[in-house]
Design brief:
This protein has 324 residues and is an alpha/beta fold. It is built from 12 helices and 13 strands. Helix 4 packs across helix 6. It comes from Deinococcus lacus.
């Protein structure tokens, strides 16, 4: 099987697909190429499944040759990470200040807005280097969705999406590319999935949430954000800036994108059944691999709904009913 898309869940999917091969003897080749490319390739039907951290919008779904289902698989945190020599404690950042950094309005780390949020912290006079994604990215969509919710200025000038017209910064490909650029650039700040920050031993900022609390990313905070945010029937939704004192404001679902009807493009029933079985496994036994890799398991109500969507997949209009 071949899948492609988001780099956000790549550390998790690498583990899950290795374990699935051990359990089922099926090789899954997953290409970490960005959510935008995953959406494009599933639309073009060149892969078995796509992967994206943000849902496809109505316009993209209408352009697809058939209905595409969004199957949530995990929850994760997008974090603001930085390279500030001598600063050892987590910096506090509001969404508005984070937006100002990415708008180019804050140019040095000892800016009064940053100093006011971090009393007692000696901030260096280093120039700010904001780092962003060069590829079409679900992590970018999550980050810009949050900033657009908290900053009208950012919403008007940059907006939300997999790819946006940035006003400042340097670009790198993938979460790993952004992490590498931050690690090698004193004064840099960027946004990446939490697992990449942990792997690279990068600092993680405490972000102010909708209740005014400054929170660092935790599995509990990501889960709290999901539980405070109701997903619609088709599962397409965001959980950024969720209410709740413990909710982490830059939380996100990550999805697999599949065709519920598997009889297309010369596929045979066995291919559809293999995909259905993989998705069933990921939503059951596969959930055990999330937390050790800094992803949150799906809330039980969401997991049950997702599994029901998978179980209703068809081939030529008939249920496949692969045994779980």
């Amino acid at each position: 099987m071949i899948g492609a898309g988001a780099s956000f869940p790549y550390p998790l999917y690498s583990k899950m697909f290795a374990e699935y091969k051990n359990a089922a003897g099926v090789n899954v080749n997953y290409q970490s190429v960005g959510s935008g490319t995953g959406q494009k390739q599933i639309t073009e039907r060149t892969i078995d499944f796509g992967a994206s951290d943000n849902a496809m919008d109505d316009e993209k779904l209408k352009a697809a040759p058939a209905a595409i289902a969004h199957i949530p698989m995990a929850l994760g945190a997008v974090i603001a990470t930085y390279n500030l020599p001598g600063v050892t404690e987590p910096l506090k950042l509001t969404g508005g200040v984070l937006a100002d950094l990415y708008l180019g309005n804050i140019k040095t780390w000892n800016d009064p807005k940053l100093a006011e949020l971090n009393p007692g912290v000696t901030l260096p006079g280093l120039p700010v280097t904001v780092v962003r994604r060069s590829d079409s990215s679900g992590t970018t969509a999550v980050f810009t969705d949050f900033l657009s919710k908290v900053s009208p200025d950012f919403k008007a000038k940059v907006g939300t999406g997999n790819s946006v017209n940035w006003l400042a910064g340097s670009a790198a490909k993938g979460n790993d590319g952004v992490a590498g650029m931050i690690k090698s650039t004193p004064g840099a700040i960027g946004y990446i999935e939490e697992a990449y920050a942990v792997q690279n031993k990068l600092a993680m900022a405490a972000i102010q949430n909708a209740d005014g609390e400054f929170v660092t990313p935790t599995l509990e905070g990501v889960t709290a954000a999901a539980e405070a945010s109701e997903l619609p029937e088709d599962m397409r939704g965001t959980v950024t800036n969720a209410a709740g004192k413990t909710a982490y404001p830059l939380a996100s679902y990550t999805y697999l994108l599949v065709y519920p009807e598997q009889n297309y493009g010369g596929r045979d029933k066995a291919q559809g059944e293999r995909l259905q079985h993989l998705l069933q496994w990921m939503l059951t036994e596969g959930q055990q691999y999330h937390e050790p890799l800094h992803y949150a398991k799906l809330p039980e109500t969401v997991r049950t709904r997702a599994l029901d969507m998978v179980n209703k997949m068809t081939f030529d209009g008939q249920p496949m009913n692969v045994a779980q």
